[in-house]
Write a structure and sequence with these properties.
The complex is a heterodimer of chains A (112) and B (112).
Chain A lengths: L3 E3 L3 E4 L5 E7 L5 E8 L3 E10 L2 E4 L6 E7 L2 E6 L8 E8 L7 E2 L3 E5 L1
Parallel strand pairs in A: 2-11
Antiparallel strand pairs in A: 1-3, 3-8, 4-5, 4-9, 5-6, 7-8, 9-10, 9-11
Chain B lengths: L3 E2 L4 E5 L4 E7 L4 E9 L6 E7 L4 E4 L2 E6 L4 E6 L8 E9 L6 E2 L3 E6 L1
Parallel strand pairs in B: 2-11
Antiparallel strand pairs in B: 1-3, 3-8, 4-5, 4-9, 6-7, 7-8, 9-10, 9-11
Classes of the chains: A mainly beta (112), B mainly beta (112).
């Protein structure tokens, strides 16, 4: 079974803090994604990566950056957290030849 | 501008009856469609998919229908069970693209 894990299920940070969200997948998938999910807005893509050290902006990259130094690990960084970044963050991975994404359990981030 | 629309935010169905979840899209370049299911506090899980060369795909109680001329797809669940209560996301992909476009989701409640 494919497993995608995220470093924290729940996180509370203060405005202005730097926040790291980590995602690890164990199936050698090339593609990895970071989404945020907000009520009524569905899943919105923040960034994705199709290979080590490669990254592309998604629909809402402002205020975020990412890092992919190893194939299995994709990190999302909030350089200076703001209250409007309070959300559920979901990581996903997929084989390049397949269309199905495998999601982690999500990190509920609250910025106060 | 939403390219994938799920116009019903919620749907309530009696156990044993059919659930029909609808999804409309505007981009004729989409050629692969997926449905994901999401329980609260969990990541989405892949449910079923369909390629644009087909008009129907079945997997047990779940059937997806694609009407390319109407740019419409639907997910049928027969018979519905209380455990099917979840948020269902429709997603679409363009050939050669890594990135799916998600709808905003439909919350299905199946009453015992």
């Amino acid at each position: 079974d494919v497993k995608v894990t995220q470093s924290s299920r729940y996180l509370v940070k203060r405005t202005g803090e730097k926040v790291f969200l980590e995602c690890v997948q164990d199936m050698d998938h090339e593609n990895m994604f970071w989404y945020r999910q907000d009520p009524g807005l569905g899943l919105r893509l923040i960034y994705f990566s199709y290979d080590v050290k490669m990254k592309e902006k998604g629909d809402i990259p402002e205020g975020y950056s990412v890092s992919r130094e190893k194939k299995e690990r994709f990190s999302l960084i909030l350089e200076s957290a703001s209250t409007n970044q309070t959300s559920m963050y979901l990581c996903a991975s997929e084989w390049r030849e397949n269309h199905e994404q495998y999601f982690g359990p999500g990190t509920r981030l609250t910025v106060t | 501008d939403q390219q994938v629309k799920q116009n019903s935010p919620s749907l309530s169905v009696q156990e044993g009856r059919i659930s029909i979840l609808n999804c409309d899209y505007t981009n004729s370049m989409f050629d692969y469609f997926l449905w994901y299911k999401k329980y609260p506090a969990e990541g989405p899980t892949f449910l079923i998919s369909i390629s644009s060369i087909k008009d129907k795909n079945e997997d047990g109680r779940f059937t997806v229908f694609l009407n390319k001329s109407a740019k419409h797809l639907s997910l049928h669940i027969v018979p519905s069970q209380p455990g099917d209560s979840a948020v269902y996301f429709c997603a679409a992909k363009k050939g050669g693209s890594y990135i799916p476009t998600f709808g905003r989701g439909t919350s299905l409640i199946v009453h015992p």
